[in-house]
Amino acid sequence: LMMLTKKLIEIRSILMSIDHNETLRLPSIVVIGSQSSGKSSVLEAIVGHEFLPKGSNMVTRRPIELTLIHTPNNDEEYGEFPQLGLGKIFDFKKVQKTLIDMNLAISESECVSDKPIELRIYSPNVPDLTLIDLPGYIQISNRNQPESLKNKIEDLCEKYIRGPNIILAVCSANVDLANSPALKASRKWDPLGLRTIGVITKMDLVSPQAGAAILRNTDYPLHLGYIGVVCKAPENASNGNMTHALIKTEEAYFRSHLIFNQRDIQVGTSTLRHTLMNVLEQSMGRSLYSIVDAVQRELEESRYQFKVQYNDRKVTAESYVAETMDCLKHDFKDFANNFGKPQVRHEVRTMLEQKVLDICAEQYWCDEKIAELPKATPEDIYWLYKVDFASAALTKSGIGRSTTQLVVDVLMSNMERLANAESFSYHPDTRQQIMSFTSEILRTKFLATSDQVENTIKPYKFEVEINDTEWNEGVKRSVTLLEKELEMCDEMAASIKNSVGKKKLKSAINYLLDSQREEARRQEKSQSLDFNNNNNRQSSHQQEDEEEEEEVVKSFYNPKLLEKAKDAIYLRDRAMILKYRIAALKSRQCKSSENKQYCPEAFLNVIAEKLTYTAVMFIQVELLNEFFFQFPREVDNRLVYEMDRKQIQQFARENPPIQKHLELQERKTKLEEVMDKLNYLVKRQADRQSSSNAN
Ligand code: GDP
What is the ipTM, given to two decimal places? Predict the structure, then answer.
């Protein structure tokens, strides 16, 4: 009988999920009443369970969109919060707890929110109804409930009590109806009283005569009338269905007073239920054609937009995820193909060559005796010892770790580049995930690789055999390196000269060199003066004079300039040594590895090359190949296969253009579905009409 309501409630749920600006609304029953009027008790009597948040401290802070779904062939009774995705909740205490939590999520300062909580209740004992429970009107504002809250609640209720909704105005029998805010609000939006049902609660608290008088309502007539109820929950209310006990008490009360038997009086929760069902069914019937029009318009609009914006191209969250991951794997493959032995070798070689230069600078170029090296005898212990020391500084510097770390760093930075690709710009979490399992893979390979490398270069710590070709290559490379270093020295010197000015720099340099010489002389002098105590006084005078003089000059040159002059002197010295060493490397002395102590730069370079070759070989096998093999598999395992439907949806929706595309597509699909259902209903209504006409 109530087919239309049932079908349209289904449709209403679908429309609610796609329509947020409420253009596509089907009628619902809005429940309003002041606090403690018995609003919750009435709703619970209809549902047959205690499930609403109750208590003195205004627990309903958000509207509750309550959809009741009659399930005649199923004994199960349960609630569902479609927004939360918690599944079926069979325990109504848990439903209540969830509602309380969702209410409390609204902060005290906000007080009320117009974001509704959706709750569906499935049961063979409920009628098909949609009800909206609104926060109760408050009459007296106190410290905890300021005036603004009162207004907020009134605004919220007004939003819902507009047509085509049906207003269920709940008033308590023991409060003068003239004071009922629910009736006041209903009169404002439904002045003729056409879509308002009055519910008078707590009929047991007034005399039957007074109660009957209220229900006859001569003062505030309503087209749909007033219904009196007694909704006192039985003391022993458990989780079981309470309707029975409740209705028994109620029936007993109304039956015991003859006055309620009169025809012009409506009483009882069952009467209320039936009235609600009938009124809603009629209202749904009236709304059918207008909703068909509205849905048709919306559907045409979304079809048009879908064509214009996306050329009717369909997209799914799944295909988007697959595409994004394929993109990553493709980029990775490109990178893996282009990052092989030669690239790794280049990285490692560059690092070791730098190390060689550092060792040469520290061990040789800073050595004051370096100028004497070419003239030293082949047996000179000093230089023989030094070359061994320098080669040890290279081979025992922890090559295994430093080379492996270098390659790991290069890989990490390349992976960062891949993860920062445009396709991941909307997915910071996934980006994080990629980096975290990249570093996890590399971390697990790190120790084994660096140990392997360290082991295989071990022989070089004791002896390095060099053939002629290797030596010649080493000499050539070291000359190139030193020339590059020299070039850099010259460039830096030139840039200092440019920034300071040639003349200024020259005079600052001269000043520095002079004062260095002066310093040396003075030290000599003070040493000789120390022997001669008699002249102490005079010397200290003399010193003071000199210091004063120096102050003057120093303040003439600013400290930054002197700093630059110092750098310039250093660079000049370094350039000189480099030129000198380049010449030595090109000289006859360096033609053979026999003379390695004369050509440490070349010797270290040959070792560096051997270390590079060996290290790269193992890094390639242990680290690189493993990583290139494992990474794409981890992408599948951790990103693609791990995602459930919800995560896939979430991932796709992180991307705003995709989100928009999906939304429009979903809207279109759902509107099409709704349109099909509506067309069926329209056809059925028409059939019915024609058959009833025929009768
Ligand atoms: P709400 O604030 O409007 O939701 O009101 P409640 O449903 O929480 O009811 C307020 C109080 O009135 C509660 O203590 C109920 O037990 C009581 N109450 C509700 N309906 C009746 C009734 O029909 N008769 C009696 N005597 N008390 C009722």
Answer: 0.98
